[in-house]
Amino acid sequence: MSDNSSYILLVEDNPDDVELTKLAFKKNNFANRIEVANDGEEAIQFLFEDHPNGVNKQGAPTFILLDLQLPKIKGHEVLRRIKQHDTMKYVPVIILTSSEQEEDIIKGYDYGANSFIRKPVDFKEFTSVVSNLGIYWMAVNKSIIV
Amino acid sequence: MKEADIISTWNSLPFPALTVQVHSNSVTILEGNKAFLKMGNFPSLEGLELTKAGLPYLNFPNADAEEAFLNLIYNSVERGKPQTTFLHTLPKSEGKSINFSSILCEIFPYQNVSGSPGLLLTFHELPSMISSEPKSSKFEQLEKTNKKLNSTNSDWSQKFNLKNNQFEAASMELNDFMYAVSHDLRAPLRRIDGFSQEMINDYADKLDDTGVHYLNRIRQGVQDMGILIDDLLKLSRLSRRKVELETFNLDEIAEEAFLKCKDLEATSREVDFTIKDKIPVTADPGLIRILLYNLFSNAIKYSANRDVAHIELGTRSMNGKKVTYLSDNGIGFNNKFAEDLFKVFHRLHSQSQFPGTGIGLATVKRIIQLHGGNIWGEGTEGEGATFYFNLTGDPKDVR
């Protein structure tokens, strides 16, 4: 399903959520590496500027999992910048958040999100969401390789 | 246009479209175009229903999302106006069909040849790459509406302050604050559930049965709190909703709401429901459905110990004013707690006796207040409860 160079970018500020998301991917036997940006600002650095593990070093991620409530630069703004960028706009962005506020959803799609998913409380459900996500965006969906 | 031309046009539409007929309790599919059949890999329309079971490719993330979609369908017929909704679906890759993560669905009411109301539904897969306009006009519109709403809200709250004897500290107690809190409360819950689940999965052999039991209790507590938060969210959404008045007979939608509620709450028990009077009202039918649903759900729940539960709906004249009542022969309550019943999270019974979140009657009261009316309850322990309400008043004066 993946070669050594492919990876997923997870933009998430809470270390517990990072750990659980990684765990959910591991449980589904997705071998892809997960790179983490801990806030909106780091995500921007990772994608567009100089960053030790960033796109400038290892190319673009297969897809981006983006939380909305982020310190410094909010998720919607990160999304807007990705989708305005000449090449990065082709990387699928999946919003993964606690919110199901209609404003957040509409704004997400208006800014060009490829998917909007509300994280369920139940970890079993979350694991199955991650499984669907992984299969769809890594194996099924045809993306443009950036 | 000839009929053959119309059919060919219909089938060459690039997006899935279908027409449906809405009945009081179900929705039947009349026609679906080629793109629709292709979307779901359906060989024909036979046996398809507008539900999760019938349209598996919609893959509603939860029962609420499915219900919200169906409610919108029912509302569209009543309102007679086009509606738009997003179907937030999970990516799905079972069998041959791979389906989208989100669909924009438009709903247009129309009259079919026989004069009965029908709906035209169109589905549009949201484009995966949008980059032309960072801030679409739709979003700007939304912002504008929000600003307008906010300024109107402050006008109303001035009026509200002038009249504050008439209304208890009602509409302010939750709302925006609660909305934010509800979201922030869910995040830590997810973590507790996630790590407890991992303990059970990977360390169960290092724990004895009691240890595993404790972990399961932790997870159950977390799930319960998740439900509680979601109920709170629903309640806070209610407060932000615009009241749309129509004139209709409350008793007619009561019948429908009762049956739906009985299906869910008391599958095997005998529940006898009597409507005593015609009850014409001017109110928001969607909100009244939620109100009745909550009242019925309580009446059925708290009469579980009766061989035959009796529920009665009617009107009565009190102090020269007509009020609507709903009575049951359930376990009732002590009248000294009558005021507390409507408070959020306030419950008179233990979870083991009667499970619940303590949000139902708070929701009911909120709906009554949105209409500018009043509600109160009277009970006799061991004999039953009666709720009285009126919906009089201009809802504009409430908010």
Overall description:
The complex is a heterodimer of chains A (146) and B (399). Chain A has helices at residues 15-27, 40-48, 55-58, 75-84, 102-110, 123-140, and strands spanning 7-11, 33-37, 63-66, 93-97, 115-118. Chain A is of the alpha/beta class and 146 residues long. Chain A is globular. With 399 residues, chain B is α+β, with helices and mostly antiparallel strands. Chain B is built from 9 helices and 12 strands. Chain B has helices at residues 3-12, 34-40, 63-79, 137-162, 175-203, 209-240, 250-265, 285-301, 360-370, and strands at residues 17-22, 27-32, 83-88, 102-111, 117-125, 246-249, 270-275, 280-283, 308-318, 321-328, 374-380, 384-390. In chain B, the strands form 3 sheets. Chain B has a 5-stranded antiparallel β-sheet. Chain B has a 5-stranded mixed β-sheet with strand order 7-9-10-12-11, with helices on one face. A two-stranded antiparallel ribbon of chain B has the order 6-8. In chain B, helix 5 runs antiparallel to helix 6 and helix 8 runs antiparallel to helix 9. The A-B interface holds A 14, 16-17, 20, 23, 69, 80, 83-84, 89-90, 92, 94, 98-99, 101, 103, 105-107, 109-112, 114-124, 126, 129, 132-133, 135-137, 139-141 and B 61, 86, 88, 90-93, 98, 101-102, 126, 128-131, 134-136, 138-139, 142, 146, 179, 183-184, 186-187, 189-191, 193-198, 222-223, 226.
Entry summary:
The complex is a heterodimer of chains A (146) and B (399). Chain A has 146 residues and is α/β, with parallel strands linked by helices.
